[in-house]
């Protein structure tokens, strides 16, 4: 029997999450940008299975179902050109996640995300019915726990938590918000309190902003919970991109989103700094979202290997801090086989005319 998510976190274990799927699969030709819907779970299961497997090998302890935006209202908004239903996607995604998770000691998390319907109608019963439909598939397939993720409005996330907790399974809830708070101006601390009161046992932040900004927001959530004398585990799954100039809406407001983000990619050493900082502030569920590739997840597992006591399988082909370069034929490359070199490197972009930062769009425009 695998230990459940709450057993692991209650025991003080570090749980490494997986990385982002939609951006990674868009780049590989399996997801359409703008729509960001996960039909690939049905159309190209081999592609989804492979990326699950790479995250597992990199050290992920959780495999999330590839069900981002897989509600019928979102599929219809995107034209549903394939006629594949949300139900079919959710079923296929559960099978794929379970198959791969069982190849290691990983748990399957069924995920729901924000709905277009919330912005259109804000009808509590209709929005909750969407989450219930997804939940029914997750329960039927016996996922290990549930994740409410990528919500800009804490009010909608509360509804999702309320629905998912009826299953009796543990519920994690992460918002895609900045240290300023959610889109309605609710502070991170108040958001955390509301999510825990709604029934979430794990709360935090995902997507939209770079790792250290997301860690800062989770820290504000932690302080809010402490002030309210509430207890919950903390979680963070940030972007794998640098977003120093971003405003409230995060990387969506950058001109590089979504087709020219490469120059903003984080290095594996950036990820080690992130993992260390997240651990230092008390976050124990540490993963990634858009922009996280398997080697980024491996960097988290390697940085926290002293606490966890083991390295992931993908580290068989990777020495931390470039030690394997000692065998390189060129002396100047051999000289890079040391921590100090990579830790202090300021990577050049190689783009002579590029600014270091962009001007984000006005985040108040709708
Ligand atoms: Zn994301």
UniProtKB/TrEMBL annotation:
Transmembrane segments: none
Pathway named in the protein's UniProt entry: Amino-acid biosynthesis; L-methionine biosynthesis via de novo pathway; L-methionine from L-homocysteine (BhmT route): step 1/1
GO BP annotations, alphabetical order: L-methionine salvage; methylation
PANTHER family: BETAINE--HOMOCYSTEINE S-METHYLTRANSFERASE 1 (PTHR46120), HCY-BINDING DOMAIN-CONTAINING PROTEIN (PTHR46120:SF1)
One Gene Ontology molecular-function label: betaine-homocysteine S-methyltransferase activity
Binding site for Zn(2+): 207, 289-290
Obligatory cofactor(s): Zn(2+)
Co-factor remark: Binds 1 zinc ion per subunit.
Record's signal peptide: none
One Pfam family cited in the UniProt record for this chain: S-methyl_trans
Subunit architecture: Homotetramer.
Occurrences of domain Hcy-binding (ranges): 3-304
Species: Alosa alosa (allis shad)
Entry-linked PROSITE patterns: HCY
InterPro entries in the cross-refs: BHMT, BHMT-like, HCY_dom, HCY_dom_sf
Cellular-component GO terms for this entry: cytosol
Keyword Transferase (UniProt): yes
Keyword Ubl conjugation annotated: no
Protein name as catalogued: Hcy-binding domain-containing protein
Function per UniProt: Involved in the regulation of homocysteine metabolism.
Keyword set, alphabetical order: Metal-binding, Methyltransferase, Transferase, Zinc
Superkingdom of the organism of origin: Eukaryota
């Amino acid at each position: 029997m695998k230990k459940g998510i709450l057993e692991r976190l209650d025991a003080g274990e570090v749980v490494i999450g997986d990385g982002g799927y939609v951006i990674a699969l868009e780049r590989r030709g399996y997801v359409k940008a703008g729509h960001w819907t996960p039909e690939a779970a049905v159309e190209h299961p081999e592609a989804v299975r492979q990326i699950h497997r790479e995250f597992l090998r990199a050290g992920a302890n959780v495999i999330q179902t590839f069900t981002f935006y897989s509600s019928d209202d979102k599929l219809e908004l995107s034209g549903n050109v394939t006629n594949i239903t949300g139900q079919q996607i959710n079923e296929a995604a559960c099978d794929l996640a379970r198959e791969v998770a069982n190849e290691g000691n990983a748990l399957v998390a069924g995920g729901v995300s924000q709905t277009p319907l919330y912005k259109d109608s804000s009808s509590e019963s209709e929005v909750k019915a969407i989450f219930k439909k997804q939940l029914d598939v997750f329960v039927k397939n016996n996922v290990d726990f549930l994740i409410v993720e990528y919500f800009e409005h804490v009010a909608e996330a509360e509804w999702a938590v309320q629905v998912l907790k009826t299953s009796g399974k543990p519920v994690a809830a992460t918002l895609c918000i900045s240290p300023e708070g959610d889109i309605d101006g609710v502070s991170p601390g108040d958001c955390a309190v509301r999510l825990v009161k709604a029934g979430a046992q794990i709360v935090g932040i995902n997507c939209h902003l770079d790792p250290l900004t997301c860690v800062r927001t989770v820290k504000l959530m932690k302080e809010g919970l402490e002030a309210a004398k509430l207890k919950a585990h903390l979680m963070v799954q940030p972007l794998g991109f640098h977003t120093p100039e971003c405003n409230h809406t995060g990387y969506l407001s950058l001109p590089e989103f979504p087709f020219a983000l490469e120059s903003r990619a984080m290095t594996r050493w950036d990820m080690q700094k992130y993992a260390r900082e997240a651990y230092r502030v008390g976050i124990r569920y540490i993963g990634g979202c858009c922009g996280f590739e398997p080697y980024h997840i491996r960097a988290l597992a390697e940085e926290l290997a002293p606490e966890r006591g083991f390295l992931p399988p993908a580290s068989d082909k990777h020495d931390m801090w470039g030690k394997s370069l000692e065998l390189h034929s060129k002396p100047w490359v051999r000289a890079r086989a040391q921590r100090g070199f990579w830790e202090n490197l300021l990577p050049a972009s190689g783009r002579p005319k590029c600014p270091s930062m962009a001007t984000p769009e006005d985040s108040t425009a709708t």
